[in-house]
Amino acid sequence: MTDPLYQIADDIQRLLEMDDIDDETRSATMEGLDYSMEQKVASCGLYLQGLRAEAQMVEAEAERLDNRVVALNRKAHHLRAYMLFQMRRVNLDKVKTPLITVSVQQGRMGIVIDDAAAIPDEFVKIERKVMRTEIARQLESGNPIPGAHMARGESFLTIR
Fold it and tell me: Is 26 among the domain residues?
C-alpha cells in the first residue's frame, strides 16, 4: 500500500509482459497488485475530492471578499464625489492639513466620439473573430469548412 500509484501500474504492466511465469503465480500476484491499485486509485480519488471541496470553499471566500472590495470601492467613489460636489458648491479649491491635502483639479482633455460611423477607416480597428458555434453546426451537418475540422478532445476522469 505504500508504493506510489505509478509504481503499482508499472508492476502490473511488467507482470502482464512476463513470459516465464506460470498462470497461477501470475493470477495470485495480479490479484494483490489489482487490489493495491484499486485502493491507491480510490485514495487518490478521495484526496482529489477533498482538494476540490477546499477549492470551492476558497472560491466562495474569494467571491465574498471580491464583493466586499466592490462595496468599499463604491463607498469611496461616492464619498469622493460628495466631497467634490461640496467643495465646488462653496468655491473651495484646496484644504491642507498636516495629515492630508485635498484639492479640486481641472479635468484632463479627452476624446469624445460624436458619431462613430463618421470616423475615417484609418482610425477604426476591425477585429476578426471566429464563430466556433456556427462552424460546429456546419461541420456536424456535413458541410466542410476550410481550415476547420471536428476532433475529439482529450480523455478525462470523472469522480462521483
Answer: yes
Domain range for residue 70?
A: 5-106
Domain count, the chain: 1
Q: Is residue 40 part of a domain?
A: yes
Per the rule left: phi > 0, alpha: psi between -120 and 50, beta: everything else, 137 is alpha
Instruction: Report pTM.
Output: 0.54
- Integer-rounded Cα Rg, in Å, for the chain is 33
Residue with cell 466542410: 144
Q: What pLDDT is recorded for position 40?
A: 77
**Domain-embedded: residue 32:** yes
Q: What is the mean pLDDT of the chain?
A: 89
**Beta strands 101-103; 94-96: pairing state:** antiparallel
The answer to whether the beta carbons of residues 149 and 139 sit under 8 Å apart is yes
Q: For residue 8, count other CB atoms closer than 10 A to its CB.
A: 21
Determine, yes or no, domain membership for 87.
Answer: yes
Q: Which helix (H) or strand (E) element contains residue 103? A: strand 101-103
